Amino acid sequence: MKSCTQLFLLILLLVAHAATAQKEVEKADREYVALRYRNAIPIYLRALEKDSSDAEVVTKLADCLYKIRDYPNALYWYAKAVKMDPSNTRLALPYAQLLAANSEYGKAAIWYEKHLDEAGSDETARNFLDTYMHLDRFMDSSRWDIRFLNINTGYDEFSPSWFDGGLIFVSNRPRTVVSKNTFEWDRTPFLSLYQVADTSIVKTVDPPAAPHIDMDKYQGVYRPTPNDSRRVSAPAAELRLPMELPPVPKESVVLFNKQLESRFHEGPVSFNSRGDTIFMSRNNVFKGKSGKDKKGVNRLKIYSAIFRYGDWKDFTEFPYNSDEYSVGHPALTADGDFLYFVSDMPGGRGGSDIWYCRKMSNGWSAPVNAGPAINTKGNEMFPYISKDGTLYFSSDGKGGLGGLDIFLIRLQDDLPAGKAANLGYPVNSSRDDFGVLLNKDGYTGYFSSNRCGSDDLYYFRFVGPGYPSGIVTPVTQVAR
Q1: Is the N end or the C end of the chain the one with fewer CB atoms within 10 Å?
Q2: Same domain, 268 and 417
Q3: What is the pTM for the complete model shown?
Q4: How many CB atoms are closer than 10 A to CB 427?
């Protein structure tokens, strides 16, 4: 009788434990569906402490970690999910992508092949598989000198631009001591534009060591480049990574212009050659009013303004903005006749594509897709056009070393001509690389990468031979 009672109590305990785990899963699922991935992660972890055999929960946890681009831990949990549910073909593609993001290219090729065996035709997967079968084409580090910059912080810094002799960049470092508005995807402050007027303070330094992440105390560590804003009510969280960087005078890096600030994201930006017109990405907020699509998502839009009488005036919406899709990442050609931008508008080849409009006497022409030489079924973004007529952009669909890779393509009469070329290693890495800016010499400049955990700014110097665009530049002409 006593053993029966003990067995009955044990069954009740197990049932209660399972019920508690299920409540945790339901709570986490609500956060997951609302795209609050960082909120969902610790709840899924608590659920797995109570029931570690739930393959679906393991997969959703892995998905959350992938969404906020904590690649090492995402790979750890995807590996568990694959082992627990080997028949789940949906896991092959993200597992291959994560293996590549962690530089395990040989294993990534195997899983891309498994995905292709199941999916058949997949242009993006085929491109990456081809890359990993011919890695020697991408790994010539002798042509580039790459350096970390001292203006980086534990927050995100990316997409630099020139303005009035100074450097403009995008960052989610807090605008004030207490930042009330946060991006719920990963609970970080919204993006703003910052300026370094005196570029002499910008120095190259050694990059920080990669931070150790303890999953038992996990709260999320990576702040991605956000594309859309959802809800903004989540409390702010601890943000700084454990980095020790040389001090930069606080007054040397300031908000670019309060007139251009809103409650949500600002940047990236592009200026005309005179520096008196700005085109900028920002969330769908105009004259204090916030717009959303049918699902409640606040999309990106492009706005322009003119600098006169000491400030930015005539704030205007780009005519092809929409509440139902995003339009952002503007890039003007040197003559100002074409505006390239990124959008997931209908009619594209996949995710987000690069489009362009021609300047007409009565405004901008209708958007034209930049075509298959640039766009894929993946995502193309962060266009930048150098003064010599080269379009730099990033893609996660053309094949590369993992995540977003930087490509370039020559423009002829401001339109794409020829094939796009991958800049190769070490400008590109297994993580996201994007947001190029060139100096006047054309062979030195800056770019952005999250290879050290958060988005950071890097200096690059091409030392030859054979620039990827086909231009041969003598090393003696390269600014050092």
Answers
A1: N
A2: yes
A3: 0.81
A4: 22
